[in-house]
């Protein structure tokens, strides 16, 4: 018999245990064949009297640990196998013995979201009748671009008509739900295409002007040389991946992109950069990003930027100029205690070119980050947003640089409620990322299920460059789920706008909100109710 | 016949005093009234004669809700105009207003008839409905209505004759929103109506209904001279709920075939672009592949692998040498053969990257050609 030592890893040390009922097992092999993590295998056990028995065994190994994705359970014809979370897990400890643990997904520390302590508490009834959510015509649009204050508008009264006498910054009025920032590389080509397809469908069939931020992983040439480019916000981050090709393609673009988003930081791992290991730089990634097969670094900072002022000047001015001053340029940072200072600086904006301030909160997702960053860095979005909005109001500059917020939007399934509350706190719109891949079929969650985006072994074909796994994702079905969710989001948003009596988005209408938490109410400057 | 003046010595009597005196008179058998009102509301309200005789009430200068909640047998004639809510919740009476009326005329009327010899205000005819136990309500308007007319209209007949309304919509802006039943007849132009409604020409039944009804209506409001003009059916339409039509969107798959970038976003890089396969695959789609490695020639030829394989994928051949192979067409790579083999001859290996097997010219980008 093989000697077992106390330090040897047992399945009871792992975060997920396989519950297996041999009496039900038909030995069909589906679960073992489909497990991307090779966490289970057939074994033959010898019984007395030279008899043998075939069983499925969980691998007692960190390299092949079960992650709880549940593909085995999904495929099992007889409910003989399933993963269950192990409350006695020592996995995090054991993993840390071989260097910092990395994972994807979101924080597992279960921080409560501020929006969950808010209610839409001011309901129009007698004095200001509520609207009819089904039949009223709502104006559900948010700006992307620099809005000039009325006194700065180049308008002149000539006779009885107002005439525009000068240029105004480009502004796009788009849907307040933006699909955000997941690169080709972080996502499989199938997943990325499914999201892009859903965007085009929502625009062209449903007439909902949803826009998608590309993430920084290069752009498919077939997309940026097509008229669907108008739905895309091109992201530029510190690695500038794919940007030489985007620049070379400018002469061939049939239309302008919807915007440019300069990514400075990310809510899930503020102050941390990104890295795509050489092993995952598959040939199609090389071609999309325009890189050789090598490890790709996105440093935590833009190497060429030293100050907020310079960021505004260099990045905004240059990208604005590159696209003929016709495309709004916005900037995205992780929410931070310093966000208000940054926003105040942006508000000074002497060139009238900052087309939006995107703030990403602590509950934002990521394809890969050190677990310690995911669990212990970041800043809640609600008070950051509120402080920025109130800083602008104090200067009479609200609405001039649109505020877009994200990070955990739709975490409890109802993105419309989250969006509505954050809009009432001062946001012009919200952006979602993780929610989109969950709609595509991602099974990851905040309770430690899967979250293997960093390993390339994604069982749903979303965060992987392995074509064998990618093909598991049905692009049409995935896009259909996103489309249907957005249509539900749209009607739910109306259901919240109608009772407060707003035909257009209630940006900054914090009087519509109450909080059942006194500290939150005080910090956000809204009514406390109990 | 009783005439009630509502002021004595410059003192206006209250609505309560007026309505109470009308009710008392009705109880005493009076059936005909002329009321010189001064804005008293709800004239006359629900009234009835115990012997079922008809009541006739002529009113000048009424307040709001004249003709509201009328019972069958009550006939109210307003000489001149009336303010808001005329005929509100009409339960079977007849109201004639010779002039214009304010907002929400006929609101929630469920039976009876309302004739208006002028214009009607906003939200007129809203929520009219037809109680199936009784005759359907009717609302006739000589001229035009304000905006948001006939909202949530669910039963009965509304007729808007469009007189003196040469410009703009006869029904104001956003008419008939939420209308689910009944018929709105309209003469003249109508603005946009919701997509779930239909604007149709009149058929013979419609013409017969209007032909007879217009005579009654025009006689009631002293506008008989307009009959020839109004009976030109070519300029009439009716608005009714459209036959229920499921708004069918194309599926995303249909949209992709018709309107998406041909071949998909990545077709220039990988020929796969867009192929979908189920979780469990055979052939190239297997994650792992069993290999029969009988190098040490220790295979017992016991057939256990072939007998245990859930897919019957293992074939045994013996030409010159003994060989077991797993048929890629059916093998899923579960490794049961490896587990069952007494001499460990089967080995489950990781499948090579699928991209090596994809068809097409790999790595070609559009930019490479420029």
Helix count of chain A? 16
pLDDT under 50 segments of chain B (min length 5)? 360-370
CATH fold-level topology of the largest domain in chain A? TIM Barrel
**Would you state the CATH class of the largest domain in chain A?**
Alpha Beta
What general form of chain A does the structure show?
Answer: globular
> What is the number of E strands of chain B?
17
Number of strands of chain A: 23
Number of structural units classed as domains of chain B: 2
Structural class by secondary-structure content of chain A: alpha/beta
Q: CATH homologous superfamily of the largest domain in chain A, by name?
A: Aldolase class I
- Across the major sheet of chain B, the strand order is 1-4-5-6-7-8-9-10-11-13-12
Count the domains of chain A.
Answer: 2
CATH superfamily of the largest domain in chain B, by name, is Glutamate synthase, alpha subunit, C-terminal domain
Largest sheet of chain B: 11 strands, mixed
Q: What is the CATH class designation of the largest domain in chain B?
A: Mainly Beta
Summarize the helix and strand pattern of chain B as letters. EEEHEEEEEEEEEHHEHEHEEHE
Q: Separation of termini of chain B?
A: 99 Å
Strand order of the largest sheet of chain A: 11-21-20-18-17-14-13-12
Please give the most extensive interface between any two protein chains, plus how many residues each contributes: A-B, 64 and 58 residues
Mean pLDDT of chain A: 92
Describe the structure.
The complex is a heterodimer of chains A (530) and B (370). Chain A is of the alpha/beta class and 530 residues long. Chain A has 2 domains: 89 residues, Alpha-Beta Plaits (2-Layer Sandwich), CATH 3.30.70; 373 residues, TIM Barrel, CATH 3.20.20.70. Chain A has 16 helices and 23 strands. In chain A, strands 11-21-20-18-17-14-13-12 form an 8-stranded parallel sheet. A 3-stranded mixed sheet of chain A has the order 6-22-23, with helices on one face. A two-stranded antiparallel ribbon of chain A has the order 1-4. In chain A, β17, α9 and β18 form a beta-alpha-beta unit. In chain A, α4 crosses α15, α9 packs parallel to α11 and α12 packs across α15. Chain A starts with 15 loop residues before the first strand and ends with a strand. The model of chain A has no long low-confidence stretch (mean pLDDT 92). With 370 residues, chain B is an alpha/beta fold. Chain B has 2 domains: 240 residues, Glutamate synthase, alpha subunit, C-terminal domain (Pectate Lyase C-like, 3 Solenoid); 89 residues, 2-Layer Sandwich (Alpha-Beta Plaits), CATH 3.30.70.20. Helices cover 14% and strands 22% of the residues of chain B. Chain B contains 6 helices and 17 strands. Chain B has an 11-stranded mixed sheet, sandwiched between helices. A two-stranded antiparallel ribbon of chain B has the order 2-3. Chain B has a two-stranded antiparallel ribbon with strand order 14-17. The interface between A and B is large, with 64 and 58 residues.
């Amino acid at each position: 018999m093989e000697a077992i030592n106390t330090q040897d890893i047992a399945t009871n040390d792992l975060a997920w245990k396989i519950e297996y009922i041999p009496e039900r097992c038909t030995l069909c092999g589906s679960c073992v064949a489909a497990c991307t993590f090779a966490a289970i295998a057939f074994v033959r056990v010898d019984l007395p009297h030279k008899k043998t028995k075939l069983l499925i065994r969980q691998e007692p190994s960190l390299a092949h640990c079960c992650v709880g994705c549940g593909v085995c359970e999904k495929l099992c014809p007889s409910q003989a196998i399933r993963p269950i979370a192990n409350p006695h897990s020592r996995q995090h400890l054991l993993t840390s013995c071989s260097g910092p643990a990395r994972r994807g997904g979101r924080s597992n520390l279960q921080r409560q979201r501020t929006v969950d302590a808010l209610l839409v508490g001011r309901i129009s009834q007698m004095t200001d009748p509520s609207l009819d959510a089904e039949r009223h015509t709502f104006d559900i649009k948010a700006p992307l671009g620099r809005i000039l204050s009325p006194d700065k508008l180049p308008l002149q009264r000539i006779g009885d008509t107002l005439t525009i006498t000068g240029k105004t910054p480009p502004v796009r009025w788009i849907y307040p739900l933006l699909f955000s920032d997941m690169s080709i590389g972080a996502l499989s080509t199938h997943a990325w295409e499914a999201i892009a397809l859903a965007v085009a469908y929502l625009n062209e069939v449903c007439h909902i002007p949803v826009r998608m931020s590309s993430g920084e992983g290069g752009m498919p040439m077939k997309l940026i040389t097509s008229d669907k480019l108008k739905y895309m916000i091109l992201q530029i981050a510190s690695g500038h991946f794919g940007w030489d090709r985007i620049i070379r393609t400018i002469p061939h673009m049939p239309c302008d992109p919807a915007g440019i988003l300069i990514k400075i930081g990310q809510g899930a791992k503020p102050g941390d950069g990104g890295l795509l290991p050489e092993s995952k730089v598959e040939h199609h990634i090389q071609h999309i990003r325009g890189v050789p097969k090598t490890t790709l670094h996105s440093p935590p900072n833009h190497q060429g930027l030293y100050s907020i002022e310079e960021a505004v000047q260099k990045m905004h001015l240059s990208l604005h100029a590159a696209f003929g001053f016709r495309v709004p340029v916005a900037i995205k940072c992780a929410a931070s205690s310093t966000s208000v200072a940054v926003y105040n600086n942006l508000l000074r904006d002497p060139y009238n070119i900052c087309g939006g301030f995107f703030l990403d909160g602590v509950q934002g997702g990521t394809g890969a980050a050190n677990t310690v960053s995911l669990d212990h860095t970041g800043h809640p979005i609600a008070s950051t947003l509120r402080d920025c909005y109130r800083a602008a109001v104090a200067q009479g500059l609200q609405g001039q640089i649109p505020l877009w917020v994200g990070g955990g939007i739709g975490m409890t399934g109802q993105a419309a409620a989250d969006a509505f509350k954050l809009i009432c706190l001062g946001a012009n719109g919200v952006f979602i990322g993780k929610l989109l891949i969950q709609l595509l079929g991602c099974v990851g969650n905040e309770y430690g299920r899967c979250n293997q985006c960093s390993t390339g072994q994604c069982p749903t074909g979303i965060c992987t460059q392995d074509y064998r796994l990618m093909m598991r994702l049905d692009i049409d079905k995935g896009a259909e789920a996103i489309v249907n969710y957005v249509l539900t989001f749209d009607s739910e948003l109306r259901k919240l706008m109608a009772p407060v009596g707003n035909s257009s988005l209630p940006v900054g209408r914090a009087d519509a909100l109450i909080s059942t938490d006194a500290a939150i109410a005080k910090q956000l400057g809204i009514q406390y109710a109990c | 016949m009783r005439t009630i003046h509502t002021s004595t010595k410059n003192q206006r009597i209250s609505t309560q005093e007026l309505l109470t005196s009308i009710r008392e008179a009705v109880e005493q058998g009076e059936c005909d009234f002329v009321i010189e009102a001064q804005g008293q509301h709800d004239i006359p309200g629900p009234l009835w004669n115990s012997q079922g005789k008809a009541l006739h009430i002529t009113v000048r200068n009424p307040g709001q809700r004249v003709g509201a909640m009328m019972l069958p047998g009550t006939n109210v004639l307003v000489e001149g105009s009336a303010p808001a809510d005329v005929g509100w919740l009409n339960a079977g009476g007849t109201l004639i207003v010779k002039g214009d009326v304010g907002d929400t005329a006929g609101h929630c009327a469920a039976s009876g008839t309302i004739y208006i010899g002028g214009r009607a205000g906003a939200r007129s005819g809203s929520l009219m409905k037809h109680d199936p136990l009784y005759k359907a309500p009717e609302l006739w308007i000589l001229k035009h209505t304000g905006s948001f007319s006939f909202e949530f209209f669910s039963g009965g007949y509304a007729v808007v004759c469009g007189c003196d309304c040469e410009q703009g919509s006869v029904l104001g802006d956003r008419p008939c929103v939420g209308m689910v039943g009944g018929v709105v007849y309209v003469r003249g132009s109508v603005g946009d109506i919701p997509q779930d409604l239909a604007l149709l020409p009149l058929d013979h039944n419609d013409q017969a209904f209007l032909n007879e009804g217009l005579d009654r209506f025009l006689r009631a409001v002293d506008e008989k001279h307009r009959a020839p003009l109004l009976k030109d059916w070519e300029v009439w339409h009716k608005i009714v709920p459209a036959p229920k039509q499921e708004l069918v969107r194309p599926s995303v798959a249909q949209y992709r075939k018709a309107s998406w970038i041909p071949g998909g976003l990545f077709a220039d890089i990988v020929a796969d672009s867009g192929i979908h396969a189920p979780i469990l695959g055979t052939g190239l789609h297997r994650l792992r592949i069993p290999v029969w490695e009988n190098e040490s020639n220790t295979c017992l030829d016991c057939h256990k692998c072939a007998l245990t394989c859930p897919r019957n994928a293992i074939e045994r051949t013996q030409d010159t040498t003994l060989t077991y192979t797993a048929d890629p067409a059916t093998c899923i790579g579960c490794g049961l053969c490896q587990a069952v083999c007494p001499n460990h001859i089967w080995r489950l290996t990781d499948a090579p990257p699928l991209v090596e097997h994809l068809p097409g010219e790999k790595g070609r980008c559009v930019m490479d050609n420029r």
